[in-house]
Amino acid sequence: MFALPALLNGGIPQLVAGIVHVVTSIAGDGWLAVLLTLLVAAGMAAATVYMWRQMASTRIGQTIRQLLFTGMQGGTTAAAGAQHPGQQQQQQQQQQARTAEQRQQRWDQVVSVLQKLPMDTVMTRAGLDQLTPHELKQRLSQQHISCTGCVEKQELVEKLLEAGGSSGASCSICCEDYAGGDVVRVLPCKHRYHVECIDRWLLSSSDCSRLPACPLCNASLLPPGA
């Protein structure tokens, strides 16, 4: 298919020149030779035009039309999908604004939760032993721990020591043992941590996708759907 233009451009003129040479050698240089040469040239020209038309209306023509159609479609699609740099920048700014707003909302939620969580002062066994049964019961009540069935003072002391569970002796965030007088924050799941440790932990969750939750049991501090 692609050799045909080369044939038309190179082979046919050479063929015409050969025919003219043969006619001249037979008929001489008279008017008959000129007439025959013109007839041959006209016929070859007509054949060339016909062949070009056939070629354009068949494979090559179809290929060209297909390429043109595809190019127009591609150009239209690219133009439709392209965005002005100003539009892209505006969309990015809107996305950043939404993200900042969501973080601020999460921050406000966490702060609100922290303000409602109770705090307690760590007391060692020796310190608890010095309290009266009434004071021990008050501490249990503040931590929403039932003292029903506790008859002896020592039972109240054990209740308080067991209240923190695995977090009752040390802070699981900084991994340091509690000392007498340390202030801890008590979560709804009853786990406790140094105030500064748990506050920093929970507030850091407002900057990422992690929901504010207890580091030990992963109990969420936010109401469902928040």
From TrEMBL:
Coiled coil: none
Compositional bias (Low complexity): 76-99
Name this protein carries in UniProt: RING-type domain-containing protein
Pfam families reported in the protein's UniProt record: zf-RING_2
Family matches, as Gene3D superfamilies: 1.10.720.140, Zinc/RING finger domain, C3HC4 (zinc finger)
Organism in which the protein naturally occurs: Tetradesmus obliquus (Green alga)
Chain ranges of the RING-type domain: 171-218
Ranges where the record places region Disordered: 76-101
